[in-house]
Amino acid sequence: MPTYNYRCKLCGFEFKVQKKMTDEGPSECPNCKKNEIEQILNPPFFILKGSGFFVNDYVKKKEEKHKKRKEKSEEERIKQKRIEKELKNIDFKRKPIV
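-> structure tokens emitted (98 positions)
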């Protein structure tokens, strides 16, 4: 059976309850006996290992894609510098027609 965490809004007391998903949660705080409790949501306690999961496959592909983009942008930057250097060496002044 799953364990659910609850907290009292008034006194701040936190407690755990084992219950079925279909059962209703507790109606009062075991500490102050008031009817002001809320369920605390926690992340799941399992790790997805192996291929076919977002963490294992998609993230790596995204990192590789980013690395390729970075390499391409570096190549483009080098090409742009080369073009700018060549343009500086060209004389664009008009020569008189004879």
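The helical segments are 54-89.
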